[in-house]
Amino acid sequence: MKKLLLLSITIIAFTFTSKAQNMTCADFCVLSINNVDTINNTLDVTIYNGDSVFVNYPIVVVTNSIGDTIANINNLFYFFGHLAGDTLLHTIPTTADSIPTGFTGTVYYDDPMDSLAPCAYSYPMVCTVGINEIASETTFNLYPNPASTTINIDLSELKNSTATINIYDVTGKIVKTISTTEKTLSIDRGDLRSGIYFVQVIVADKVLTKKIVLE
Predict the structure, then answer these.
(1) Does one domain contain both 32 and 114?
(2) In terms of pTM, does the model score above 0.90?
(3) Shortest CA distance to 28 belongs to which of 88, 73, 100?
(4) Rounded to the nearest 5°, which phi and psi values hold at 38?
(5) For a tag site, which of 55, 83, 102, 205 has the least CB within 10 Å?
């Protein structure tokens, strides 16, 4: 573990002539934590802003499962914001040498102009409000939609050989998980009830999500 001085989470009080609108924590989602750069001592944290507010100078802190801070950035000292409806990748200083498979922890996200406490997210998490795909040159196709008995997935546009496919219900519960090297596959709905589901495809450092309706 490399030695790196990290700032602790700080709630900073300011007086402004114009108060920022408070963040709604439930409308944000941490999509991924990955890409540790051991040369520059950074990692990437990708967060979706499903709220209607602009986040001023975001503060991002990542802790591991035992509460130790492994990454921290405070953007207060230069202009850096997170637009409403956008997915933003934060590259932040870290002490981690890697992010192991199955990593669990907590991500704190804060706007220092917000009067509320930082938002805290248990990672990994699932976006069920304002689902948004990470900006990417790659995608996958999902058909038919709505579907009745079978969900067809076309991964031919993805370059990686292995993909993990998770299907979530609207509560965020994983109802099916498949690992595949195939470029096209069909998934039988089995005993899944009619309703809205989210199909998540994980390939390398990309997480792609699409909504599907089962009739």
Answers:
(1) yes
(2) no
(3) 88
(4) -80, -10
(5) 102
